[in-house]
Amino acid sequence: MNGTPSPYAHEVVKLDSVRKIYGGSKNRVAALDGVSIGLPRGSFTAVMGPSGSGKSTFLHCAAGLDRPTSGTVLLDGVDLGPLGEKELTELRRERIGFVFQAFNLLPALNVVDNVTLPLRLAGRRPNRSEVDEVIERVGLASRRNNRPGELSGGQQQRVAIARALVTKPAVIFGDEPTGALDTYTAREVLTLLREAVQWAGQTIVMVTHDPVAAAHADRVLFLADGRIVSALERPTADLVAERMTHLGAWGNESTAPRTSHGVR
Ligand SMILES: Nc1ncnc2c1ncn2[C@@H]1O[C@H](COP(=O)(O)OP(=O)(O)OP(=O)(O)O)[C@@H](O)[C@H]1O
């Protein structure tokens, strides 16, 4: 306690020796097997790896949706370990935004009401100009009064992103946020996430199977058998696909996705 700032103070998400074990002695699976990583504020991180490598478990433990078997998770400086369920729920509501593959909008509510829902759930009064700004940022100013059923998939995901941004969370976790979108719409949504990092200094962590999606991030973490086995800074889709191929991620080479340059 000498007043020197912690070198990790800028790390919004910090995992230290996190292990998550499922099953018993006969069917034991180490879904996470000693993961230590810090994710800096204002960074965009993609998490990739073969099926079953632990991506969802990583996201769930980092976001306080699941508890590690051992190790610590700090979110915006708060140790999640000692928190009870109620405190965890509050922390998720106050400091975390989520964007899922299924947009999870409420069909009866229009765009504005879907976007402001987390604020109202937290007992906070939506600030009209801030809400207008975020809706404009995601390109839905002319759709404010439409319901989700009247919007395209890409527009619905934009609503979900606005809803995640409006609380100014410490971090947004994305679970395959472009998984249900066509290539063109996916690129628009990824560009929007990238812009949120730039304009709002937003921290984003995104699980994806898609090298093109991962290439929008600042850094890609590769998981295999519950461990972070490599990382790629300033990734390109071709380099990500190549790294995944080395991890045996595609199983059958002929089913591997091709990037723009044909790399599998
Ligand atoms: N609730 C659970 N009970 C038992 N085993 C589980 C449970 N959840 C995950 N696992 C196991 O933990 C390992 C990691 O799973 P996880 O879902 O995190 O992988 P993933 O990389 O997200 O996979 P995918 O890309 O297929 O979604 C897998 O072997 C999985 O079978």
TrEMBL record:
SUPFAM superfamilies: P-loop containing nucleoside triphosphate hydrolases (SSF52540). Keywords: ATP-binding, Nucleotide-binding, Transport. The keyword ATP-binding applies. GO terms for molecular function: ATP binding. Residues 13-250 form the ABC transporter domain. This is ABC transporter ATP-binding protein. It comes from Streptomyces glaucosporus.
